[in-house]
Amino acid sequence: MKAAFFAAVVAAAAVCMTGCGSTAKKDSKKAAEAAVTEQRELSEQTVIEQLPAADEFEKIPDDAVDAFNYSVSELKRVCPVKGKTKRLYGYVGEETVENADCYVFCVYDQKKDETFYVGKVAKTKADDRLYLYDENSGYELVENDDEPCWSETVTASYAAEITE
Fold first, then answer.
1. Which one of 15, 65, 77, 104 is most buried, by most CB atoms within 10 A?
2. d(Cα 12, Cα 49) in Å, to the nearest integer?
């Protein structure tokens, strides 16, 4: 009897453990966000004397406005602005990143009298991929976590139970 009870407990524990799922995707997202945060913190250590002149930037074309807005919202998620820091952006043109045409923006943070270079981001024209430029390794993809984990989705049977 004790053996059957013990076997049932072990089986129940095994079933419960299968619900934990793989954390590899979450770990890679955390690593990418940590890399972005680390790059931002390193950039804050070096204060640039002044912002580049306005003529070094280009006027944002009408078809790049949506890419700009997406880049701004994603950067707020990946590397949020702290305190009373003002975030500034400049459009620098188009580049090809990983065989995709992209709009490229430079990002600066300004706090009091200090200006920090945050980095350069590239947003693909065709989809919602965003790349952050790293001087050592080139452009790195910023992970998008808009897709919910399987455990966060409501199944049809659970939804039916809630509505009854």
1. 104
2. 63
Model confidence, pTM: 0.60
User: Which of 55, 62, 35, 138 minimizes the C-alpha distance to 95?
Assistant: 138
Contact between 139 and 98 (Cβ < 8 Å):
yes
Give the DSSP H/E element, type plus range, for residue 133: strand 130-134
Cα dihedral value 111, 37, 52, 136, nearest 10: 150
Considering only residues 118 and 94, tell me which one the structure prediction assigns the higher pLDDT: 94
Q: Are strands 47-48 and 86-97 parallel, antiparallel or unpaired?
A: unpaired
Tens of pLDDT, residue by residue over 105-124, are 999 888 888 888 888 999 99
Structure tokens, 147:
């897709």
Q: What angle do CA 97, 73, 76 make, to 5 degrees?
A: 100
Which are the contacts of 66, defined by CB distance < 8 A and separation ≥ 6?
A: none
